[in-house]
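Module 6 notes. Inverse folding takes a fixed backbone as the condition and produces residue identities as the prediction. Think of it as a translation problem where the source language is geometry and the target language is the twenty amino acids. Below is one complete input and output pair. Work through it position by position during the lab.
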């Protein structure tokens, strides 16, 4: 647990389908990742423990409704956090705004509503800054050849 360079965290197992879609991208790229279902509302103490033990270099946080999860993670780490807003209500606009409207000093990157694939891809691009072979795989993925 918490050993891979990318960690996909969802606030609820009801978001498992979105996690799976992100996993599909990471698997195509041959990247190692961890998956955790931890709520910033219901079990924040477990989330804190997880984050303090994680070796992840980047987090992809999948969240709907109040979408507090990405911001909470960003407040607990100096590593990049990518928020994936999920359409649970209001067309996902509530989730989107919760993620992008973080206070200054606690940034969270954000991809489109219901787009975990882009969250996974952005995490891979961050890692590719130090890995030219990964950058080549991403280019192949984008061209539909992976």
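Target side of the pair, the amino acids:
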């Amino acid at each position: 647990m918490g050993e891979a360079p990318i960690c996909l965290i969802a606030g609820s197992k009801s978001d498992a389908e979105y996690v799976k879609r992100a996993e599909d991208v990471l698997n195509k790229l041959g990247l190692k990742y961890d998956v955790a279902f931890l709520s910033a509302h219901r079990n924040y103490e477990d989330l804190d423990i997880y984050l303090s033990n994680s070796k992840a270099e980047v987090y992809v946080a999948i969240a709907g409704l109040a979408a507090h999860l990405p911001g909470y993670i960003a407040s607990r780490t100096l590593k990049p956090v990518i928020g994936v807003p999920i359409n649970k209500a209001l067309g996902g606009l509530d989730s989107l705004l919760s993620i992008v409207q973080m206070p200054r000093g606690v940034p969270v990157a954000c991809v489109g509503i219901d787009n975990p694939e882009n969250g996974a891809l952005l995490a891979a691009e961050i890692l590719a800054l130090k890995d030219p072979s990964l950058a080549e795989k991403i280019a192949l993925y984008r061209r539909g050849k992976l």
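Reference fact for the lab report: The chain is about 45% helix and 15% strand.
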